[in-house]
Amino acid sequence: MKMSTLLRVTGALAVSALALTAADHAAAQAKKIKIGFVTTLSGPNAAYGIDMRNSFELALDHMGRKMGGIPVEVIYEDDEQKPEVGKQKTDKLLQRDRVDFMAGYIWSNVLLASYKPVVDSKTFLISANAGPSQLAGEQCNPYFFAASWANEQNPMGVGHLLNQKNVKRLYIVAPNYAAGQDMANGVKATFKGEVVGQDMTRWPDQLDFSAEISKIRATKPDAVYIFFPGRAGVQFYTQYSQANLKKEIPLYSVFTVDGVTLKLQKDLVLDTYFGLFWAPDLPYAANQKFVTDYKKKHKDTPTFYGAQSYDVANLIASAVAATKGNLKDKEGLRKALEAANFDSVRGPMKFNKNHFPIHAIYQQEAYKVSENEYDIRTISKIIDNLEDPSAPKCKM
Amino acid sequence: MTPRFITRSLFFFMTLLLIEQFLNGLQIGLLLFLLAAGLTLVFGIMDLVNLAHGSLYMMGAFFAATLTEWTGSFLLGALLALPATALLGIVVEVIALRNLYTRDHLDHVLATFGLILFFNELARILFGVGGMAIPLPDSLLTHFEVLPGLPYPTYRFLIIVVGLLCAVFLYVLVQKTRLGMLIRAGATNREMVGALGIDIKLLFTLVFGLGAALAALAGLMAAPITTVQIGMGDNILILALVVIVIGGIGSIRGAFIAAVMIGLVDTMGRAFLPNMLGTVLSPADAGTVAEALSSMLIYILMSGVLVLRPAGLFPAPGR
Amino acid sequence: MSSLLRLKSPITTIAGSILLVLLGLVPVFAMLLDDPFMLTLFTRIVIMAIAAVSLNLILGYGGMVSFGHAAYIGVGGYAIGILAHHGITEAWIQWPVALIGSALVALLIGLLSLRTKGIFFIMLTLALAQLVYYLGNGAYAYGGDDGLTILQRTDFGGLLDLNDKETLYYLCWVLLVIVLWLTYRVVNSRFGMVLQGAKSNDRRMATLGFPVFRYRLTAFVISGTICGLAGILTATYTDFISPAMMHWTRSGDLIVMVVLGGMGSLFGPLFGAVTFLMLEEILSSWTEYWKIVFGPILLLVVLFARGGIDGAMVRGAAGYALTGLITLFLIYVVHYLWYDDWIPAAVVLAGAAAAILAIWYRQRREAVAIASAGGDHA
């Protein structure tokens, strides 16, 4: 008994700082919905994480910061774009904060590192961006949903677009990592012509694409298809334009132009083509409200990362409302999430059996609003109700 | 078309492509040289391992981008960014690094690693998370006919010219001027130079400022191609270290040769490995395997050089 | 400042032992405080401490600055991950394969790099580790850049259940104690004496008839193997392997931990690992701008607490206390101003002001004799 008292005292002294946080959380066990949100808030790609946080916050504002009448608390954590850090933050959210839902995740390697502890603890994980093909196929899980897309989906749309534009000879450039592979395979799954060249570049430290661009010039394809998310997209577009190829060989891309990169890409992306499931000008009421209020609040255009996060918030809210706030009812929550009974900013969508969306892909372009202001607009719908090819591999 | 004609035109075409890729490699190499030159100067003369050299590269690029925005001229922005970064370097030297010359290399690593973290966050606070771009003036967006049938972007050609000019400037500075003489003397024997009444402290501060200006030049020349972003100096710093180690610490000539070597090996690897592997693998597999191989080429090159010549290509005398 | 002397310095030994005991009690605290995350966090800290101790063996005692130690973490981890992927989970296969694999890689890297010195050694170990990193990156069968999830943890045949958090933690803790004890024995053996002798003057040792290269290579392989052990544990604890675990920044972190804690001291790397990872955890939970505080802390430790935490303890508390105070001040500022937008600016200003004041104070006290700078190549 003496021993245990001593132990308690030493313990309390040694970790008094931690004790404070723990006591804090013990007091917070009231009726409240806790959501953990892991994204990148520092480093060169912080702008996307911040956009996701802004959009998620905006969604909460729109629902009065309550889901099914219960107050919501969101804890945001920075993964520093490192799998190991993301996994540790996820553990913290699960074990210390004991969140009811996990969301966020820009990068597939961070998601894959963090995924197992979440689903093992029977907590629902809703990806707001990453959609690696493993999780859409063999490793699909009853506790995992993607409110974004499966990696191959958007490039498959671009493949259809290339066919519509009568492109026969295509050159592919993408970074050499898993998502890059998926994005290259996606376009090849639907493109009917010949792939005359494919370069996989070093990720993420290759910044100069002169060797690849020289090869494109020499190969003279009908079109070039690229996938370079974030910063690298600005670099590729800059160098492609500097090489004066934009007018000679049309450039098609996916996830390479967004509200953040557009501020740097400016004129460089005019007259190029891209395909995506969402654009800021899609005419749906939910989308109009999201984009207008985001612009009002942050004096900035949201990106697709933000749009997906906005959808995640609404998806969770729809499930909480459907189960009347009974978070213990996992079966009910899953059914409600699967129903996707909410107004998505992308318009009509439903979940496939692997918990990845089935939705339309649009052809888009960037345009100049005014001096120094650029935006993205929809040109046409490429294809409706596109399913991803990994779904049949999912046994669920 | 006879087969012979096809072979011959294919040969001609391949030669042009080879020359173009050679220019690409040269340009990447010279950009790397600009960064490595300052690093090797500081390392060779003050015996200081300055990991924060990459941060000065980044800050130089951010300064240039901001000043270009303010003045509306890339040239003016670039010319102002050089002294600004040199000044920043001098401040860092006087406040923090001056106290470290007598220390172990590992102390340098720890302290300057701390500086990297500091500057990355500082840049984020000062310039925002979105990064910046330096749009080129129309006069530099043109093409330059290097050979008939071989147009090359003017700006990339400018980088080659600036890199070569800088190499000549450094050669003359170190070998032919009084400052260069002091620098060389200081590198060999500090006590003696100090005893001769030269203010060695001031000399070191000046050299550090020069190194910072060189880092800024590298950063602002790279900026229009690669854009300006937080942490842009971190990965390229490793490459610059590889360069100065292959070249031999403190050797400008070594840094020049090593930088061009690395630029060429890297570009040629990326350019031709996929096609070579394409003869045995499917194009998609060739692309991925070639990328993995070409990433390794630089390190294989460096390992090879160091196994054969443990102090680099041009080891400094008296070390 | 012989390392033996430091080892025998009672303050460090006492502090180190207390820390070890406290670490041993972490599961108890975690239970009392009902905070399972504490256990997770400290599992990582203990594993990284093992890696730091392994690096210290060659860096601190042998003067070999390996900038590629993360490669062995990778080799150890990938061995576990790949075997598990193929359904082989028995410990008696997994662990020996992983350890022998790390030893072989260390042997190869050591053979190639130990002929060079100073910065050339640093960069050569980095280059060779980068090759291992890119191999992992290119291993598409095992997830490439995305990495691989380990679905089933190592099976100890009923002896140990690694799925149990406490068991895993105590396994790591016991291994840490064993590794520390092993280091102590190695360092104080004849072998260790030669190693340390070669650090200060390898020509003399060679003249005395010791095959210095072979001694160094042996130490290098031992170190790499222990680091491989840390890799095994990392893979087990995260259920995941990816090339990111052997990125060069990881190797850099390990060096920072060792230097921060105090090189060539038995407990130094332990202090370093605990301080580094705790600071990271605490600071990053307060503000996402935490690196602007963490960076200057490292700089100040170098400037004021020479010889790291261990050195400060041995030499007396003055420098240590000053560093601690500035650190606390900075942390306080960040914490206090957390909710406002202007904090970053205030933190920069306060941090810069504190650093400049402290350095000015120091410069007044002792004139820095740059002229006497020696060419002590690490």
Short description:
The complex is a heterotrimer of chains A (396), B (319) and C (378). With 319 residues, chain B is mainly alpha-helical.
Ordered list of secondary-structure elements with their pairings:
The complex is a heterotrimer of chains A (396), B (319) and C (378).
Chain A: H1 2-14, H2 16-27, E1 33-39, H3 46-62, E2 66-67, E3 70-78, H4 83-95, E4 101-104, H5 108-120, E5 124-127, H6 133-136, E6 144-146, H7 153-164, E7 169-175, H8 178-190, E8 194-201, H9 210-219, E9 223-226, H10 231-242, E10 251-253, H11 259-265, E11 273-276, H12 285-298, H13 304-322, H14 330-339, E12 350-351, E13 357-370, E14 373-386
Parallel strand pairs in A: 1-3, 1-4, 4-5, 5-6, 7-8, 7-9, 9-10, 10-11
Antiparallel strand pairs in A: 2-3, 11-13, 12-13, 13-14
Chain B: H1 3-46, H2 53-71, H3 74-95, H4 105-127, E1 143-147, E2 150-153, H5 154-176, H6 178-188, H7 190-195, H8 200-226, H9 232-247, H10 252-278, H11 283-308
Helix pairs in contact in B: 1-5, 1-8, 1-9, 1-10, 2-3, 2-4, 2-8, 2-9, 3-8, 5-6, 6-8, 9-10, 9-11, 10-11
Chain C: H1 3-8, H2 10-32, H3 36-59, H4 70-85, H5 91-113, H6 118-138, E1 148-149, H7 165-187, H8 190-200, H9 202-207, H10 212-238, E2 240-241, H11 248-261, H12 268-286, H13 291-304, H14 308-315, H15 317-336, H16 343-365
Antiparallel strand pairs in C: 1-2
Helix pairs in contact in C: 2-3, 2-7, 3-7, 3-10, 3-11, 3-12, 4-5, 4-6, 4-10, 5-6, 5-10, 8-10, 11-12, 11-14, 13-15, 13-16, 14-15, 15-16
Please describe what this structure looks like.
The complex is a heterotrimer of chains A (396), B (319) and C (378). By secondary structure, chain A is of the alpha/beta class. In chain A, 43% of the residues lie in helices and 21% in strands. In chain A, strands 7, 8, 9, 10, 11, 12, 13 and 14 form an 8-stranded mixed beta sheet that branches. A 6-stranded mixed beta sheet of chain A has the order 2-3-1-4-5-6, with helices on both faces. In chain A, helix 11 links the parallel strand 10 and strand 11. Chain B is mainly α and 319 residues long. Chain B has one domain (26-308): ABC transporter involved in vitamin B12 uptake, BtuC (Orthogonal Bundle). Helices cover 76% and strands 3% of the residues of chain B. Chain B is built from 11 helices and 2 strands; from the N terminus they run H-H-H-H-E-E-H-H-H-H-H-H-H. In chain B, strands 1-2 form a two-stranded antiparallel ribbon. In chain B, strand 1 and strand 2 (150-153) form a beta hairpin. In chain B, helix 1 packs parallel to helix 5, helix 1 crosses helix 9 and helix 2 crosses helix 8. Chain C is mainly α and 378 residues long. Chain C has a single domain, classed as ABC transporter involved in vitamin B12 uptake, BtuC (Orthogonal Bundle), CATH 1.10.3470. Chain C has helices at 3-8, 10-32, 36-59, 70-85, 91-113, 118-138, 165-187, 190-200, 202-207, 212-238, 248-261, 268-286, 291-304, 308-315, 317-336, 343-365, and strands at residues 148-149, 240-241. Chain C has a two-stranded antiparallel sheet with strand order 1-2. In chain C, helix 11 (248-261) runs parallel beside helix 14. Chains in contact: A-B, A-C, B-C. The interface between A and B is large, with 40 and 49 residues.
